[in-house]
Design brief:
InterPro entries: Intradiol_dOase_core (IPR015889). With about 300 residues, the chain is mainly beta. It is built from 5 helices and 10 strands, in the order H-H-E-E-H-E-E-H-E-E-E-E-H-E-E. The chain has one domain: Aromatic compound dioxygenase (Protocatechuate 3,4-Dioxygenase, subunit A, Sandwich), CATH 2.60.130. The N and C termini lie far apart (about 45 Å).
Length: about 300
């Protein structure tokens, strides 16, 4: 099922500049409406895009967010080898991917004041049930690229501090070679599933409709996330899940057709307990919530 009607293809950078397919002013105006009420904005090409603003209270997230508010700066991680601006301002990022439904709610707050950050752009991206990333299907399915096999089959990619899977020096020839972290990927295919961005409202909350991520060798189950304030990337981090839930989800199809998972939370070199999303059942799937405390003014506090 396709969901591109929800957000026309739009660059986050041009949206922030207010000169792209959908200007940020129009997006923010839509998000500032009544929670849960779709708003339609007109693009520079004359087409329309629908944006549905949401709030935690209106969506039954109050219990999940309760007790999760913390002013401790959220742990930063490598962005990994498969990040790029997906040009998708939307909440439903599933497209045609199969999997257990997962609604992701993220509250962004300032790490110094604990106040919600409004007008921040939150991006998330993750692999599908088979361990493959859109925009990098060949690279991440064992057909070459970073890590000599990529997430789908072979040795996992590396990138970031501290060494070990998912960290260390980027592999020769991979994105970001020569730097301490991975650089942005130039997409090698036109797929954009399981990638998207949303703009926070006055409550600092964004929501995405996706599927439970799959796994690949060398890494535990995770979702990548990035927070932008203005033109600055103020937080790059990852979100993980309780292993009991991972095990339950992976008993179902399409996950069950893959075996041999080799890395769990306690063996992952990036995992921290603070990265665990609070999850509860919702219909045939799950809803999860997490709070990001971001250094919005980038003063290291």
């Amino acid at each position: 099922m396709g969901h591109d009607h929800e957000g026309q293809r739009v660059s986050r950078r041009t949206a922030l500049a207010g000169i792209g397919t959908i200007g940020l002013g129009a997006i923010l105006a839509a998000c500032g409406g009544e929670a849960g009420t779709p708003s339609t904005v007109t693009t520079s090409t004359g087409s329309t895009a629908s944006i549905t603003p949401t709030t935690g209270a209106a969506s039954g997230l109050a219990d999940l967010f309760a007790g999760a508010n913390t002013c401790v700066l959220t742990e930063s991680t490598t962005q990994g080898p498969y990040y790029f601006d997906a040009d998708k301002i939307r909440s439903d990022i599933r497209e045609d991917r199969e999997g257990v439904p997962l609604r992701v709610a993220i509250k962004v707050q300032d790490s110094e004041t604990c106040r919600p950050l409004s007008d921040a752009v939150v991006e998330i991206w993750h692999c599908d049930a088979g361990g493959v990333y859109s925009g990098a299907e060949a690279l991440s399915s064992g057909q070459g690229g970073p890590g000599e096999g990529g997430p789908g089959q072979g040795t996992p990619p590396s990138g970031g501090p501290s060494g070990g899977p998912g960290r260390g020096t980027p592999p020769p020839g991979g994105p970001g070679e020569g730097g301490g972290d991975m650089g942005d990927l130039t997409p090698v295919d036109d797929k954009r599933y399981l990638r998207g961005a949303q703009v926070t409202g006055t409550d600092g909350i964004v929501q995405f409709v996706t599927v439970w991520p799959g796994w690949y060798r060398g890494r535990t189950v995770h979702i990548h996330a990035m927070v932008h304030v203005g033109e600055a990337r103020v937080l790059t981090t990852q979100v993980m899940f309780d292993e009991a839930l991972n095990g339950k989800v992976f008993e179902a199809q399409p996950y069950a057709r893959r075996t041999g998972r080799d890395t769990f939370n306690d063996g992952d070199t990036i995992y921290e307990p603070s990265m665990l999303m609070k999850v509860s059942e919702e219909g045939e799937g799950y809803v999860g919530a997490i709070v990001f405390s971001a250094d919005s003014d980038q003063d290291k506090a």
